[in-house]
Amino acid sequence: MRHLWLGTTFLVAACGPGLRGTVSFEGRRAPVTTTAAGLVEASVLPASHERIGSVRAGCTLTEPFSRVEGAWLSDVDCRASRLRQSLRERAAAVGGELLVRLECRSEPRGAAHNVERRWLSCAAEVARSRRGGSRVDTPSSGAGDRWPGTASAVEAWSIRVDFTPADGIEARPARHPDSVRERAEIPPSHVRLGGIVTQCEEGCSERGGFEGLLATAARAGASDVAEVACTARGSGWVCTGSAIGHRVDPVEDPAAR
How many domains is the chain built from? Predict the structure, then answer.
């Protein structure tokens, strides 16, 4: 990943208002005692803990994925693992030590012109140990639930995404972001599937913008991103890159594997 200098002629495409999910907390804050990784989940509130509030997060999943302008990364990369991690980050930041009764759900939000939208949401109660009480030390969630990214999951609600599909390229099945890698250039064996821009005015990091490129490329069915460049802009970041994939998609054609 290289840094890119953008002059004053760089323009950000405007986008109209729309439904936006959030990561919210309702309750009373307390001193921070742990990180998101150290937070524990439980199905019931133990007597050694007290409830301090609740957290919830939501996003809109649109399928199939195609051209987007100014979409929130939280909607482009709308999946339960990001929602769950965002709850953990938010709960830890307000002094929580335990997530109780964490539940996620998916609800249809309508379909038109072969496009389907679903609302994904997760919610949980936040608790911490009472004064003099013992802490719960063993997380109830498995290793598969752990967030694989290095940037904060919550940053996705501050990052906008533009994706412009390349002409003449058929849509490909989405992939998991973990499977997308960075390449310096587009190799002869690959084709450009589209261009990606991630950007935020504040509340994100360079890593968050870069991981946004990977997540968007994954939705486009890309195996890699190339020609990546990121630059600081004010209090935020702008990252650009190309989503690329094999000329013959190995997912569709087993002979190409």
Answer: 2
Which residues lie closer than 8 Å to 93 by C-beta, 6 or more apart? 32
Rg (CA), the chain: 20
Q: Domain range holding 185?
A: 158-256
The backbone region for 134, taken as left when phi is positive above 0, alpha when psi lies in -120 to 50, beta otherwise, is beta
> What is the C-alpha separation between 197 and 216, in angstroms, rounded?
9
Each residue of 61-108: pLDDT tens digit?
999 999 999 999 999 999 999 999 999 999 999 999 999 999 999 999
**pLDDT tens digit sequence for 191-241:** 999 999 999 999 999 999 999 999 999 999 999 999 999 999 999 999 999
Strand 49-63 versus strand 23-27 pairing type: antiparallel
Phi, psi of 248 (to 5 degrees): -110, 115
Of 177, 52, 230, the C-alpha closest to 125 is 52
Q: Is 233 exposed, middle or buried (0-12, 13-18, 19+ CB in 10 A)?
A: middle
CATH number, residue 127? 3.30.110.70
Q: Is there a domain that residue 192 lies in?
A: yes
Of the candidates 170, 163, 165, the one whose C-alpha atom is nearest the C-alpha of residue 247 is: 170
With respect to residue 16, please indicate whether it lies within any of the assigned structural domains. Answer: no
Cα separation, 81 vs 101, in Å, equals 16
- The full length of the chain comes to 257
DSSP string, 97-120: -EEEEEEEEEEEEEEETTEEEEEE
Sheet of 115-129, strand order: 23-27, 49-63, 115-129, 98-112, 40-42
